[in-house]
Specification:
Chain lengths: 111, 114
């Protein structure tokens, strides 16, 4: 079973700050990586699906990069807003295996 | 579209009791999944289905059974509940490719086993 790690476990930033966090996954036989945004009392919602080394995806102020050779993905939030407060999950899978979710990074944006 | 719905939202059981959680999706998705979410841990896959009439074990299948008699429904059963099964259960579905298609999640069921 894959071991997917995320860091930091939690962080607090001020409104307007930019921030980033990391998802680490086994690089051998990598197939796909997903990022989800999970607000308290709601369901996880998809942000990005990434498959190619060097891939970069963007949605508004949020972007993500992927390095499949070294086994990590970064999620960036530019100019954080209070509504960005959520837990950000990544999930990775290798060929023939099911997705494994990381424990998440809990982001709090202070006004 | 309602998306993915789960019934019930909350449930309290005594040790040894049984129950069934219902997941329904109206997006004509082939794949459906059951996860459990525990504090400090990521979502862990219990069972999944790649289509009507099929089921397969995930990472933590012990103590659970599932059925997918209709494409839109995926049932999760606990035959004899244990306190270790206290958790929040999430159902999800995806369209055709279970590795690259986005998973759509239900609102969750909070289960407490006393």
């Amino acid at each position: 079973i894959l071991n997917v790690e995320q860091s930091p476990q939690s962080l607090h930033v001020q409104e307007g700050d930019s921030t980033n966090f990391t998802c680490s996954f086994p690089s051998s036989n990598f197939y796909a990586l997903h990022w989800y945004r999970w607000e308290t009392a709601k369901s996880p919602e998809a942000l990005f699906v990434m498959t190619l080394n060097g891939d970069e995806k963007k949605k508004g102020r949020i972007s993500a990069t992927l390095n499949t050779k070294e086994g990590y993905s970064y999620l960036y939030i530019k100019g954080s807003q209070p509504e960005d407060s959520a837990t950000y999950l990544c999930a990775s899978n290798n060929y023939g295996q099911n997705f494994v979710f990381g424990p998440g990074t809990r982001l709090s944006v202070l006004p | 579209n309602a998306g993915v719905t789960q019934t019930p939202k909350f449930r309290v059981l005594k040790t040894g009791q049984s129950m069934t959680l219902l997941c329904a999706q109206d997006m004509n998705h082939e794949y459906m999944y059951w996860y459990r979410q525990d504090p400090g841990m990521g979502l862990r896959l219990i069972h999944y289905s790649v289509g009507e009439g099929t089921t397969a074990k995930g990472e933590v299948p012990d103590g659970y059974n599932v059925s997918r008699l209709k494409k839109q429904n995926f049932l999760l059963g606990l035959e004899s509940a244990a306190p270790s099964q206290t958790s929040v259960y999430f159902c999800a579905s995806s369209y055709l490719d279970r590795f690259t298609d986005t998973q759509y999640f239900g609102p969750g069921t909070r289960l407490t086993v006393l």
